[in-house]
Amino acid sequence: MRTEFNTLVETLKRWDLYQLGDEVDMDLKSLEDKITELEKRMECVTRCNKEIDEVVFSFVDAFEDRGETEQTLTYGQFEVLLRGIHDIDIAMDLKETECIDNNWYGLFEEP
């Protein structure tokens, strides 16, 4: 999406279809900000998935490496799984601002 946006901006510049500070420029800035937000939200999802993977694969490793047929899920692991699932839903809901308000993974800091 970022590539297509940049291509659009370059086309508009080439044909001199907007000037800095005009309505088109402001709308492009708004769209660019939304694309940046979406990219950061997708990074949150990627990181949540990584945390969930680590818990799940700890069970796989215990089974494959040590032949354990039973392993207990700790409260901490359960919390990572449950919260990760909910966090993915939150991050992908553009109306939900929790990931921004709480600056998940330090991704939403103002430059």
What is the strand and helix layout of this fold?
Elements (H helix, E strand, L loop, with lengths): L1 H13 L8 H44 L8 H18 L5 H4 L10
Description of the molecule:
- By secondary structure, the chain is mainly α.
- It has a domain at 43-106.
- Helices cover 71% and strands 0% of the residues.
- It contains 4 helices and no strands.
- The protein has helices spanning 2-14, 23-66, 75-92, 98-101.
- The relative contact order is 0.11.
**Which sequence of SSEs, written as H and E, runs from N to C?**
HHHH
| Count of individual beta strands | 0
Oligomer: single chain
Our count of helices gives 4
Short overview:
The chain is mainly α and 111 residues long. Helix 2 runs antiparallel to helix 3.
